[in-house]
Structure formats: C-alpha cells, structure tokens
Amino acid sequence: MTDFAKYPPHDQWHDWRELDAKAWPDKVERKYTLVPTTCFNCEAACGLVAYFDQDTDQITKIEGNPEHPASRGRNCAKGPATLNQVYDPERVLYPMKRVGPRGGGQWERISWDQALDEVGARIRTAIEEDRRNEIMYHVGRPGEDGYTDRVLKAWGVDGHNSHTNICSSNARAGYTFWMGLDRPSPDFAEADFI
Description:
26% of the residues lie in helices and 21% in strands. It has 194 residues and is an alpha+beta fold. The chain has 3 domains: 10-86, N-terminal domain of TfIIb; 92-135, no CATH class; 136-185, no CATH class. A hairpin with an 8-residue loop joins strand 2 (29-38) and strand 3. The relative contact order is 0.10.
C-alpha cells in the first residue's frame, strides 16, 4: 500500500521540525509540538493534528491525524479550516448580553456566573409556569447529547436539537438507504477506482 501523504512520525510529535512554507525561498526552520485533536465542524469528528509553534505559542496549521482510526489522516476542507475559527477576530470568547433592541447590535460582556444564573432562572420559570415548549437545547457535537437529552426529558422538555438536524441528516439518510450505514468511512487506500 502506498501512502497518499507523508506524515511526521508519531514518535517525533513532541519536537517536530520543518521548513516554514510561508518563508520560502528562505529556508526558515520552525519547531512544533504536534497536538492530536478532533474536528468539531461536523458529526464525523475526524482526527486532526494541530501544529503548535514552540517559538510563538500559536497554532500555525492543522492537518489530518494519521493515527485516527476512522479518518486516518484524510479530511475534508473543514478540518484544516479550524485554524481560521481559532483565530477569528469575531470569535465569541465570553458571554454577551443584549442591552438594546433585538437586531440593534448592542451587547455588553457579562460573567459566566451571571450568564448561567440568568439562563437557569429563565429555564426554571418556564418549567414552573408550564411553558416547556419555550425551552430548546442545541447540542453541537457527539458525546455530549446523551446527558443533556436525559436532563431535558427529566424536565419534561421535548426541545432537543442537534447538528444532525441542520447539517447531516439528509446525507445520513441517503447513506443508510444506499449502504445500510449512516456514517461510512471509505477505504480510499484500498480502492480500485476513485
């Protein structure tokens, strides 16, 4: 079997060195620590490796993780694009509360304690006043939905929403009808034709 790409050997992930492509034609060597992580852009949760620059303390690139049992280092464009999300200047880093009219774009920063207290109080009031239909929880990633779904059911709330509802349910239904699997992992390395 021929590899599609050459990856840094796993035993060198703690101290990987390579030339900086952005510095070309100068040969500038960069020192990295490679950190395995998981893509959070869809339910597939493909394996990624973040290249953490030891000199700048910044992630400089993200690639597929060849050690991941499902994705095996092969990712769609969403995985490496995670780098843009990490450093997006408009990324929400702390709770914000609207202080003006809806749509007015007026927000103030509040503490996590205040945010949790206010949201919790509103949920409690809705449950106590039998307005459970006003409560909806959106779970973003697999693994956290089982617990929250049980909590919502204990509250008598049928307001569970997930990434599947808004992204992958149509594809997963097609895969199920076609292959009997809702999340196939193609074996491109052993394919006779692609």
